[in-house]
Amino acid sequence: MPGTTTPAVLAMPDTVTASELPALRLKRNEDRRLQAGHLWVFSNEIDTAQTPLSRFTPGELVRLLSHNDRALGIAYVNPRSLICARLLSTFNMPDAEWFRARMRRALELRERLFAAPYYRLVYGESDGLPGLVVDRFGPACVVQVGTAGMERLKPMIHEALVELLGADAVLFKNDNSARELEGLPCYVESTGDSSGLGTVIEDRLEFRVPVQGGQKTGWFFDQSANRRALTRYVRPGARVLDLFSYVGAWGVRAATAGAGAVLCVDSSATALDFAGSNALRNGVAVETRKGDAFDVLEGLATERMRFDVVIVDPPAFAKRKKDLPKAEAAYKRVNQLAMQLMAPEGILVSCSCSQHLDAADLQAAIGKAARAAARQVQILEFGGQAADHPVHPAIPETRYLKAYFCRVNAMPA
What we know:
There is one protein chain. By secondary structure, this protein is an alpha/beta fold. The chain has three domains: 18-87, Archaeosine Trna-guanine Transglycosylase, Chain: A, domain 4 (Roll), CATH 2.30.130.10; 96-192, RNA methyltransferase domain (HRMD) like (Transcription Regulator spoIIAA, 2-Layer Sandwich), CATH 3.30.750.80; 199-410, Vaccinia Virus protein VP39 (Rossmann fold, 3-Layer(aba) Sandwich). The chain has helices spanning 32-35, 96-113, 148-152, 154-165, 224-230, 249-256, 269-281, 293-302, 324-339, 359-372, and strands at 23-25, 40-42, 60-65, 71-77, 83-87, 118-123, 132-137, 140-145, 169-174, 187-192, 199-202, 205-208, 239-243, 261-266, 287-290, 307-312, 342-352, 375-383, 402-410. The chain has a seven-stranded mixed β-sheet, sandwiched between helices. Strands 1-3-4-5-2 form a five-stranded mixed β-sheet. Helix 9 (324-339) crosses helix 10 (359-372). The N and C termini lie far apart (59 Å). The model is unreliable at 1-11 (pLDDT under 50).
């Protein structure tokens, strides 16, 4: 498994009460965002004269106070991070029962929404568990811990998953580079029998995914509703291009909806192997082509290939706010190249998972691409992340996925 170091888990203070926790005090008026429901505290919002950040250890629990000593709740702190504290929205100590209650509430929502146990079980701040992501793969779970405070609560995470779900295996896939911002090492660690981990059921389709070596937790549950929406745009015999295909979730869905030919494009040979086998698993076939999506698009144009449906679902082009100008240019270019390959009455599905690129920015990039490609584009439908990724109304960062379903034609005379 990747990673060689597993950090020591700090023990929770069993005998400490909430009132005995050290205080972390905000500057004047810096509690307004928290009073509106947000959970993040930035380092420049702390009254460091009264409560120096250097006094705290990463992951330590604190009482968060406004400038006039009004209690805001219990938070965990990390003086090494720009987001130096995250509020747990409670005035009670986050013990094992508190953690089980939070996870139980998250489970109740997913069981209401999904007939089969394949979904995102915990979506961080939206489920009141900032810094934690849990994806459920039937009898097993993949966990990603993104903060020092949640790392400290790791034993409770495992205990709750076993008690509430009877999980056969729990894989802590803590190899995300974002952990570096928290001063945390990367590692992968599993408990239980993880030999069966990696099967996903989406509607009537079955996929195998590379959980340990794949992207994120191995599967993108957030696009499930958009993949479902795709089926009504796939006419019998349609030619479909699935860009940034990963293991073929979009392409296999299109093939089972009646597409006559599907081409999956990805830079990973392993991902394309999974895409091919996933197609066969579901009684269909897809072609694959390995390469950079931009280069492949240019090659397909040279070959005069045409497609009735093109799915553009790239990784985040803007991982940081300062990346936005380059990201906007990349979204414009990839959509322009895709439109140039489209047959009359073609359908373009253009997505972005970049948190820093909002829906209006992606729509603008699609519009610029249309003008550059001399195409007329009509937006038919807008999709976001699936319901197992609920949006917190006070935390815009929890809304990140955008998917535009567009009709594309040549410019009218």
